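Single Protein Entry

Contents — chain, fold
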Amino acid sequence: MSLHNGRPYLAIPGPSVMPDRVLQAMHQPSPNIYYGELVDMMGDLVKDLRTVACLPDGHVAIYITNGHGTWEAALANTVAPGERVLVLATGTFGEWWANTARAMGINVDLLNFGLQDTIDPDRVADHLRADTGHEIKAVLMVHVDTATSIRNDVPAIRAAIDAVNHPALFMVDCVASMGCDRFEMQNWGADVAIAASQKGLMTPAGMGFVYFNDKAHEARKGLNLVSPNWDWTPRAFPENFYRYFGGTPPTHHLFGLREALNMIVHEEGLESVWARHAKLAETIWAAVDAWGAGGEIACNIAPRHLRSHAVTTIRMQSPNATALRDWVSDKAGITLGISMGLADPGDPAWHGIFRIGHMGHVNAHMIMGVLGCIQAGMSALKIPYGEGALDAAAAVIAQA
């Protein structure tokens, strides 16, 4: 018997659950793209995008793309082919950003910190100190790696760069963290940050955002050639409406994003959004800790202060994770995230990892429902686990 009839729950780390209000805002005929509501709302929409990034004095360019596209856009405006960058990797997405740079003809220094640990600021400082000619033009890092669920310390890396007086730009991937984990671009000293629409911003996949400050824009001015599609100058400083998008705008995405930003910025408030994500993450961790007391299940990241508030990667004995994902999908209508980069798909260890996305439009009963169905699946599959997980999760929520 299956109990998955009804609304399915996509509990993966993006695309995230979209609010009905966002869907309803998008459900309208194509608008006039020359004047009227769509054109009139852009000023406030851009202002609210900057608010979510805590960038009161900077700029943002909007692209019709995903997070991968924003990697390329950020580099295209700041680093020329043949120049050099330092990439700090704590999982798949840092490594993929490095691959993007290489494909653009950029020379990459890669410091890889593994799949269960954070970036070491001392190693970063040592590497930059050795670059006496200041050949490294940018330092790239991922705030939250969606594969490993590590949450890296952005201010600590800024401090490491400053400690050796290196002039490199500091670029941060916030695709998984924007609108979920605290990120203060201006106060934390990031020169460039990237985000996308489909995670904490609760809008369908298809829009990417590149934030930058004046220092980064000076680097853009120093480049001899930037692809017209990636050039952030006309998008961030448009002479007219169509320049925001390099052509036809993503009309219905913009209506959805407008409603999502209403919810985040003007109703719940960014501080409350961050607090909600932190509390719901703690709810999941409490359950995993209890399950792990009587079985082989644990969060991929052991130190709690290094765990993302948007996604939790969980390890268990292989092939139990795949069996569990299949069970909760077939029986309960919940989709859990697969392993991504922690093991090769041909490696049996791949079947011992799953991920829970808890980003964007999520609340207490949604998280408790996911946890309850995971526990039901472990019971049905006779996967050993410790008792008291749901009580422990409920206790966290009771303290809210």
About this structure: The longest strand covers residues 136-142. The mean pLDDT is 97. The two ends are 36 Å apart (CA to CA).
